[in-house]
Amino acid sequence: PARVRVLRGNLPGMRSGRVPGRGGGGGGGGETAALLCGLLLLLGAADAQGIRRPSSYKTLRGDAPLVIAKGGFSGVFPDSSYYAFSFALLASAPDTSLWCDVQLTKDGVGICLRDINMSNCTNAAQVYPVKNKKEAKYVIDGVPKTGYFSLDFTLSEIQTTLSLTQGIYSRTERFDTMYSILSVTDFQSNVKPPSVWLNVQRDIFYKQHGLNMRSYIVSILKSVPVKYISSPELGFLKSISKRAGRRTKLVFRFPDNFLSDPSTNQTYSSLSKNLTFIKTIASGIMVPKIYIWPVTNDNYLQPPTSFVQDAHSAGLEIYASDFANDRIIPYNYSYDPLQEYLSFISDGGFSVDGVLTDYPITASEAIGCFADLNASKADHGKPLIISHNGASGDYPDCTDLAYQNAIKDGADVIDCALQVTKDGVLICMSSINLLDTTNVQMTPFSSRTSVVPEIRDTPGIFTFNLTWNDISDSSLKPKISSPLSTYYLVRNPRYTNTGKFVKFSDFLEYGKDQDLSGIMITIENAAFMAKSLGFDVLESLTTALNDAGYNNQTTKEVMIQSTDSAVLVKLKQQKAKYKLVYTLQPGIGDASASSLADVKEFAEAVVVDRSSFFAQSVHFIINQTSLLTDLQSAGLTVYAQVFRNEFVSQPWDFFGDETVEINNYAQSLNVDGLITDFPKTVRRYKRNSCTGLGNDVPSYMGNVTVGGLAQLLKNQAAPQAQPPSVAPMPKLDAPSVQRPPFPTVAPKNAPSGAAPPPGSSPSAAHTTAVSTCILLVLACATLLL
Length: 785
Hints:
Number of domains: 2
CATH class of the largest domain: Alpha Beta
GO molecular function: glycerophosphodiester phosphodiesterase activity
Domain GP-PDE: 65-367, 383-686
EC number: 3.1.4.46
CATH architecture of the largest domain: Alpha-Beta Barrel
Protein name: glycerophosphodiester phosphodiesterase
Strand content: 15-25%
Number of helices: 27
Region (Disordered): 717-764
Distance between the termini: 74 Å
């Protein structure tokens, strides 16, 4: 692509001597340029066709909203680094504007730096000892701040001694101290952005300390083609309005608080009600997202304000700020950053004129490929959308709400993890242990704990400890899953304990009456049920399917999934008419020919955990394993699991954007189905308007280069910053596939010493022993106290 030419030759953003073994001013420019291009060349070979957009938007002039890359692609690389700026050009819409926060040095030169306090975005604190004379204290926005400030350093000091670091702790620090700080003129001459946006945050502060921001900005307008200048100080914009000329748009920026504009002594709240006055100075305004979509104290959206319409009525363009994939966004968006963009550009009945983001690839996707999609009838083509415990990303697992919304959200297949109650009723529940999926510990059933070594070593309250009437009791409620709660990410708190438990017979009715391609039933612990409970889950399953009419129809495919090959072998021997699916253990890297031959004896499809597709080190993809090729070469259908929207669930290589990850599995890996907690995210992906464009697919909707970021670190970072080496992943072999034959079902009237009858606790004596032991421990603890 023509725009890649800016990366050829030396990379002035890479300081000489930063990388051990590298000398010279460019730091290995040609090689590094090829690596950086390689990250995105596989993201799509063609952006010559430009961005694909709907015919019109409800922006001020009907143009597509502008993508504004804050400090470049600062979600990955340090803000305002050469790589951040260059990568943003490759991964975004062709007309993306690159945002530079302008700070002034001691000698009055403008630099691109995200914060006036360099402690937050450079290695100044490491270069200069604590309490060094370079450390200073200033009052910033009315608050005393201590640190290292740009106005205390000359440009030469900054560029020869300091390096950029990542200022957001949730992001990788492995690119820290690799890049020097760019002056505004270096930024323009080296990066050559198609559109430059300069943000001037503190003109008055610099003026109070003997530096003139206005003079600097006016001086560079002759050599730097600046398209946008923004500032929260209206007086500054007014002072440069006559010098800026028609080619530069002035944008008044509202901060995320309601302080006063020091240049007018008016509160931002009062200025927001006087947009016609702002229009006399500026052509646009920029506001935080909450000005447009207010948020409640418990992080849910309120109805939108009229701010966008008011700005347009005043003749002002309006830009929204504060977008980032790794922010905690309102729960209404289900942790999906792309969905949030859509609410600002199409789904809300209005459109902002641009968005300021740390992840320009996601904004480009939203604007170019997902706005105003036709919500037509779902096709059931590849990849299949298979729910994981229903729409469990938004509702408690396997409840009526989870299934109803999975169907509404566009799942092709809904799933049921089959369990049995004390009185032999089949139910759908994601875990056999009620402690995992319900509030049972808060109910009268909390005393029914037992330890079942065949299932787990710790005490639990299991579905077979309670009857169906117990489980459907009003005091027992479902509990929403939080698989990433260690990161303090919880799901849809307002619905934590909502929904009703579902019997298997009711689940089968859901599957029959809806626009689905089929159902998937997961069976685990079947051997335990047969030996210890005297319950034949396979026979009960077959009977239920027959009673529901699934044995004599062809419109709905029935898939039966298990990690236990003996279960699938037994069903195969019974000549079941259903599709048998074998679930591989996580972390398998490849498969032997003998193991694949064994799998093919009893299954025609496999479920593979996402951890098996790529070898990873500290969340960087290192390489792709051979497992997928092995499975596909054997003629097995491959379903990948489990896809989640939360940004911490994806490797760094997918940029905290679940759509990027889904796109890679669908287009590059070509898997047959995606098992997901969020069916609506995958359904929206399948409706996008870009992936069917062939050679015209825009770069931001292509495939990420496998191991591209890790390779970049390997070539440029110091050894201590590189991802640690990883051991080879284990291989699937025949012994790991083979299981003992499915056991004979224990008779229900078993004599003393045999397996207990169905419905009883499977280890009553053991349970009593455990309870006695717990009482003894409590007594001893009391005596000790």
